[in-house]
Specification:
14 strands, Isoleucyl-tRNA Synthetase, Domain 1, 4-stranded antiparallel β-sheet, Gyrase A, domain 2, 21 helices, Rossmann fold, 3 domains, single chain, alpha/beta
């Protein structure tokens, strides 16, 4: 019989092992050859909890039809069924389907209630130390929706890894040098008479900086005289040689960093370490110059390049003809610095997929310099978040900021709840939590890599495929429990349900889903699972009395508590908070 607590293996793996042994033993008893076969969940729970294709795999070898062979194996398997499996049957062209027992589901329900916030954790990454580097903003430039998307994915993966036992260090690597600095400072100087007041909000100050950057970008491209001035200012900023330039830079930098912290707080991210490009500029130059002599880099027209064509890649400049380290060189130095400070098992860098080719070259150059660091450094990319009117470019400054997207979404949620009879404090909480949920869900609902169209009207819907729907379901489950004054009360097997509810076929799968999300670095599995679970619970809620259900009341309340626990845990892994009421 299965124990009611977790062993070092997931319960679902234990069941799969039991089924595999049943099939192996049956095949041996029948004189069938050993073979590899699949044990998986059917798409529809009506067709069982597990299904195997063993008969389809073996049929040609033994000269029987898959369905005939499945029936033969089935009869042998039935002779040794454990208490955790209630029945086995054949289906379709020759599948064998296994149905778990009421005892199994009752034991799993007890486990969910006992584990609470720990349900879904595993030790797959126990003892591993991992750096997650994400968001990677540029000071003196807006926090755009690409940064927002990277933050959402990075934070969720960080939590999933922690749920799998890893020690995670969250870092962000921020661009505080480069041509955008010169453009912004030049723009600030031109607009100094319109400078914001000290008493203005950080948002207004950062908006002004963004306008200065946009103006500087325009003039750099359209006015050769301005372009030369910007280049001079950028060099002074790099050298820190001009007090006036330093003043504008320091002031705007402090506004940027303060603003980023406001957004991180709103999104539920807290970084363990903040790194800046300027900190590795000198090391970058030393590394590149050292490895020019060793043949890794080559001089070309006054610059230093890495000839990626040798490796099926493309050539990139690592040091400019002005002698300045480029992003490539600084990223190499940064990767080496990270490993010296955090000698981890893996360092994962999350950026938009527009940088895929860039990272292939950078990581190849790094492998020629330090193969150990390169071997532990991985680039994980995501697509772009777009609004219906298309992608907005930051090159000219016409960028949709992360803050503006959140605030506009929040305002739309306020319209939905404005007439509800709720305290204003609760309405404010709903607006903030639901707005962030709508955006996070839209980002995390698909596997990393693809572009996403953010349709605000669908994203903020309290019904259907949306983050708010999951929040609403969690709030509904909690309200039922509060009404019943139910807090993980002891469940009696003497009052077990007379039937197995559809939702029970889903509850026990949560740890498996978390493990898969961890293995594949893709929280979208959690999103899909939670949506299926929420839909099943709302069907359970609509079709069954929960509080006044006679002898089954406690069991149904146990199911409700389990749904609440899993939704709460799953939404935490997505970085989504649940309002008190909706």
């Amino acid at each position: 019989m299965l124990k009611s607590h977790f062993s070092s293996k997931l319960r679902i793996t234990v069941i799969q092992d039991i089924i595999k042994k049943l099939i192996d033993d049956a095949c041996e008893a029948l004189g069938l050859p050993k073979t590899s076969f699949v044990i998986e969940h059917p798409d529809n729970v009506d067709f069982g909890d597990f299904s195997t294709n063993v008969a389809l795999v073996l049929s040609k070898q033994v000269g029987k039809t898959p369905r005939e062979l499945a029936g033969t194996i089935l009869e042998e398997v039935k002779k040794n069924l454990p208490s955790s499996i209630s029945k086995v049957e054949t289906a379709g062209p020759g599948f064998i389907n296994f149905y778990l027992s009421k005892e199994f589901f009752a034991l799993e329900l007890k486990t969910i209630l006992e584990k609470g916030e720990a349900y879904g954790t595993n030790d797959n990454l126990a003892g591993k130390e991992i750096i997650l580097e994400y968001t990677n903003t540029n000071v003196l430039k807006p926090f755009h929706i690409g940064h927002l998307m990277g933050n959402i994915l990075g934070e969720s993966i960080s939590r999933v890894f922690e749920y799998s036992g890893a020690k995670v260090t969250r870092i962000t690597y921020q661009g505080d040098m480069g041509l955008h600095i010169g453009k912004t400072i030049w723009g600030l100087m031109q607009k100094k008479d319109a400078f914001p007041k000290e008493s203005d909000s950080v948002s207004n100050k950062v908006k002004f900086v963004g306008e200065a950057y946009a103006y500087g970008s325009d003039q750099y491209e359209d006015n050769s005289e301005s372009a030369e001035e910007i280049k001079i200012i950028n060099k002074k900023a790099y050298e820190k040689s001009d007090p006036d330039v330093n003043h504008y830079y320091d002031l705007a930098r402090s506004w940027s960093l303060e603003h980023f912290e406001e957004i991180y707080k709103l999104l539920g991210t807290k970084f363990d370490h903040y790194y800046f490009e300027s900190e590795v500029a000198e090391d970058a130059l030393k590394i590149v110059n050292e490895y020019v002599e060793k043949g890794v880099f080559e001089k070309s027209d006054g610059a230093i390049v890495f000839k990626g064509e040798k490796y099926g890649l493309h050539t990139r400049v690592f040091v400019s003809s002005q002698g300045l380290p480029m992003y490539e060189a600084k990223d190499v130095a940064h990767a080496i610095r990270k490993y010296k400070e955090y000698p981890v098992d893996k360092s994962i860098i999350i950026t938009a997929n527009e940088q895929d080719d860039y990272f292939k070259v950078m990581l190849k150059a790094l492998s020629e310099i330090d193969s150990t660091v390169a071997g532990k450094t991985e680039h994980l990319s995501h697509g772009m978040l777009r609004v219906p009117e298309g992608k907005m470019s930051s090159r000219k400054g016409n960028v949709i900021t992360g803050e503006s997207l959140i605030l506009e979404t929040e305002e739309s949620v306020r319209e939905i709840v404005k007439d509800r009879e709720l305290p204003q404090e609760i309405k404010n909480q709903i607006a903030e939590f639901v707005a962030v949920s709508a955006i996070k869900y839209s980002v995390l609902r698909q596997a990393p890599g693809g572009n996403i169209i953010f349709d605000k009207s669908k994203a903020i819907s309290f019904e259907g495929d949306s983050g708010p729907y999951l929040q609403y379901t969690a709030v509904r489950a909690n309200s039922v429990l509060e009404k019943a004054d139910y807090k993980n009360k002891a469940m009696s097997f003497e009052t077990m349900q007379k039937e197995i509810y559809k939702i029970e076929h889903l509850l026990y799968r949560f740890p498996e889903i978390v493990l898969r999300a961890s293995d594949e670095k893709s929280p979208h599995y959690i999103v899909s699972y939670l949506m299926e679970l929420a839909s099943a619970f709302n069907g359970f809620y609509a079709n069954n009395k929960i509080i006044e259900a006679g002898e089954e009341t406690q069991y149904r309340l146990g199911i409700t508590q389990a749904v609440h626990n899993i939704l709460w845990n799953g939404l935490y892994l997505l970085g989504i908070r649940v309002p008190e009421r909706m």
